[in-house]
Amino acid sequence: MSTSELAASYAALILADDGVEITTDKLQSLIKAANVEGVEPIWTQLFAKALEGKDLKDMLTNVGSGGGAAAAPAAGGAAAAGGDAPAEEKKPEKEEEKEESDEDMGFGLFD
């Protein structure tokens, strides 16, 4: 990471820690107050736009839980379907059983 990226990152973290909205102007003022020279305004614009409307603290505390988010919409869609949901869930299980039976045949990709 370059000095410009680090300065913008740290400034965004400081603003998020204080509960202040992350904007280009606020990032620039923090970087100037820290006497970091050579930071082009494009970096603060990029960081402000990327973090607009997002809770940075929440993003940092849930770094490792990103995999579970994809399953939630699928479960919500199945619940909305009503009675068809259990039938749909059984189909993938049958496919998994077929995969397991292929492995039991005694040959594989690396044999």
Summarize the structure.
This protein has 111 residues and is mainly alpha-helical. It contains six helices and no strands.
**Given the structure, what is the number of helices?**
6
First-to-last CA distance: 44 Å
Number of strands: 0
Stretches with pLDDT under 50, minimum 5 residues: none
Estimated share of beta-strand residues: under 5%
Describe what you observe in this structure.
Helix 1 (3-18) packs across helix 2, helix 1 (3-18) packs across helix 3 (41-50) and helix 2 packs across helix 3 (41-50). This protein has 111 residues and is mainly alpha-helical. The chain contains 6 helices and no strands. Helices cover 65% and strands 0% of the residues. The protein is elongated and about 70 Å long.
Layout of helices and strands:
Elements: H1 3-18, H2 24-33, H3 41-50, H4 56-61, H5 71-81, H6 85-103
Helix pairs in contact: 1-2, 1-3, 2-3
Give a quick set of tags describing it:
111 residues; mainly alpha; 6 helices; 65% helix; 0% strand; elongated
